[in-house]
Design brief:
About 35% of the residues lie in helices and about 15% in strands. It is an alpha/beta fold and about 375 residues long. The protein has two domains: about 160 residues, Phosphoglycerate kinase, N-terminal domain (Rossmann fold); about 190 residues, 3-Layer(aba) Sandwich (Rossmann fold), CATH 3.40.50.1260. The strands form three sheets. The protein has a six-stranded parallel beta sheet. Strands 9-8-7-13-14-15 form a six-stranded parallel beta sheet, with helices on both faces. Strands 11-10-12 form a three-stranded antiparallel beta sheet. Helix 1 crosses helix 2 and helix 7 packs across helix 8. The N and C termini lie close together (about 5 Å).
Length: about 375
Amino acid sequence: MRTLDDLDVEGKRVLVRVDFNVPQDEDRNITDDARIQAALPTLRELRAKGARLVLLAHLGRPKGIDPKFSLRPVAERLSELLGEDVALSPGLDDVPGADVVMIENVRFFEGETKNSPELAARYAALADVYVNDAFGAAHRAHASTEGVAHLLPSAAGRLLQREVETLNGILEDPKRPLVAVVGGAKVTDKIGVLDAFLRRADAVLVGGAMCFPFFKAQGHSVGSSLCEQEGVEPASRVMEDPKLELPTDLVAGREFSADTDVRELDEVDVPDGWMGLDIGAGTAERYAAEIAAAGTVFWNGPMGAFELAPFAAGTKAVADAMASTEAVTVVGGGDSAAALAQFGLADRVTHLSTGGGASLELIEGKELPGVKALS
């Protein structure tokens, strides 16, 4: 994969695809600027080398031009962080000649998500070279992530480079024991990741609602728990693997609410009328001990409904263990990143990925179009 070290950018205009798909409140205030912060090393390096920048980014999934999805708040926040003005261009014509320009939301342009060659050519006409630093969008073959990379001298930015090297590293040459902690709601979303780690890891610890298809396949009762029926077959296929570890106790609630009745179960059979919403204290302690003894840990997916206080303990136990272990710790974005932020531990792991979906596809061994185009 080509990197910034392979590009001559002095005095040139550089088209940079960044991932600024950041959360905002109802008043359009950015509530978490971590993705903007993550792009700063690449942008600062390019500016220090004498490059002028044209930035491409998306926000949300607008259906055509929609002011609610404008990148103006993002451009304003980037101006503050970068320490220089960022001009926002509403389109691809008459782009301002400023040193740093952000093009309005690329998903406002017809053909972006269909990887239109015509749109890619319009992007390419804006610059002399192309840099992709949007790892969170690298698994999409879009005009701004894949198509344009073939039309200009291109390379990976420092963020994308670090993401790919870190994730490949834990697969190809991890410090052992390698422990994978996999949670979330659906087995079908994570079966490729489970397969990948069952081939490579020393232990795979499962939590979240995705444990219930495993329990159902084993003949346990799941009560009113979220149990993906389509996940039972793939769960039954891998559940006999000795590396796979499941919860042995649970925390259940009557309803999905912070005010519901709570019941601690010393087993995994969930009574009728109850739903399992977290791993139990015994499982949390066991998982934390395995993380503490690991050489490398990859974590993707919460252990329960951590956004509800009565059911946050399991996820917090994993987060605390990740923050205190001496192992190399890699977190695969998404809800796991949100949990670390909630518990104030986001800066206590070795690598916090900016791309949940992209990181999982890379772990599964899939080719990421945005990465392949830079090879």
